[in-house]
Design goal:
Mean pLDDT: 80
Radius of gyration: 21 Å
CATH architecture of the largest domain: Alpha Horseshoe
Structural class: alpha+beta
Number of helices: 10
Distance between the termini: 36 Å
Order of helices and strands: HHHHHHEHEEHEEHEEHEEE
CATH topology of the largest domain: Serine Threonine Protein Phosphatase 5, Tetratricopeptide repeat
Number of strands: 10
Oligomer: single chain
Helix content: 40-55%
Low-confidence stretches: 115-127
């Protein structure tokens, strides 16, 4: 179903490229369509063709930024994103794609950079994530009323951001009396262990949102049935979403998610239409 949305555009762009093979913007637009069909390698080829034809064009550089980011070439995406804004400083699309690329760069280094004397830029991903410490203070009434939370030494965040952060957070239950004195506290078990993240990553092998192809190292673990509503920390209730789809879509109250025990994920939108994704059939066979 998702693929069919781009069938007409794909045919039209292929015809335009055959008629005008030197049109960089046609190549760039085709690259974007291929990218959203999760055809990452052909998308990158088309984006690079467009760049060869128009190396300083803002739209071309904007598309190249998005394609490189989704191909997990974060360094190139950050570089070309900056060039896109320089070429088209008023382009909201260029700023959006550049911003997402920078967020992916920052997220990767915050999550995975090891505190050792080894080269931090070495192309080796540690086995465990270094989860950042971010303290959000909220009350049971605020949670019930979707009132958000206050970041310690930071701004107030909305309820969607609280839910997104809570998916991977370790919660501290704190009881205060009417004078503000601490009466009891309890650190609750971690919601996402390395074992749980690794198991879900092995099944999903990337962001589960239709058309997204971000690899597990750029993804968060999402609880389909949220923890505050009784959702369990289990592979049957968790899936991978990239940071963009985790915040912008997975915690959108107008969108409903349902995951079957076999990992099949069904997304229902406000108009009643649905999309379904299944885990990629690339798991190794068990020994006979």
């Amino acid at each position: 179903m998702f693929q069919n949305k781009y069938a007409a555009a794909t045919t039209q762009l292929q015809d335009l490229i055959r008629a005008h093979p030197q049109d960089a913007k046609d190549h760039a637009t085709y690259a974007l369509v291929l990218n959203y069909q999760t055809k990452q390698k052909p998308a990158l080829d088309e984006a690079l063709k467009a760049q060869q034809l128009a190396p300083n064009d803002g739209f071309v550089l904007t598309v190249l930024t998005r394609v490189e980011d989704w191909n997990n070439d974060l360094q190139s995406a950050a570089r070309d994103g900056a060039a896109a804004i320089k070429a088209s400083p008023s382009s909201a699309l260029a700023r959006a794609f550049y911003g997402e690329a920078l967020a992916d760069v920052c997220g990767f280094y915050v999550d995975y950079r090891t505190r050792t004397h080894r080269d931090p830029d070495a192309p080796r991903v540690p086995k465990t994530r270094n989860w950042p410490q971010l303290i959000a203070i909220t009350t049971t009434d605020d949670i019930a009323n979707h009132a958000g939370a206050q970041l310690l030494d930071g701004p107030r965040i909305d309820a969607r951001a609280v839910e997104t952060l809570s998916c991977t957070a370790q919660l501290l239950r704190l009881v205060l009396d009417e004078h503000g004195a601490i009466r009891s506290y309890q650190l609750l078990p971690s919601s996402v262990t390395d074992a749980l993240f690794g198991a879900v990553a092995a099944r999903d092998q990337g962001c589960r949102w239709p058309g997204c192809h971000k690899q597990p190292i750029h993804c968060d673990l999402h609880h389909v049935h949220h923890r505050a509503k009784g959702g369990k920390n289990s592979t049957c209730n968790c899936c991978l979403f990239c940071k963009y789809h985790h915040h912008r879509a997975a915690h959108d109250t107008t969108i409903t998610l349902h995951m079957a025990r076999d990992g099949t994920l069904t997304i229902t939108y406000t108009d009643g239409t649905t999309e379904t994704t299944i885990p990629p059939p690339r798991q190794p066979r068990l020994p006979q």
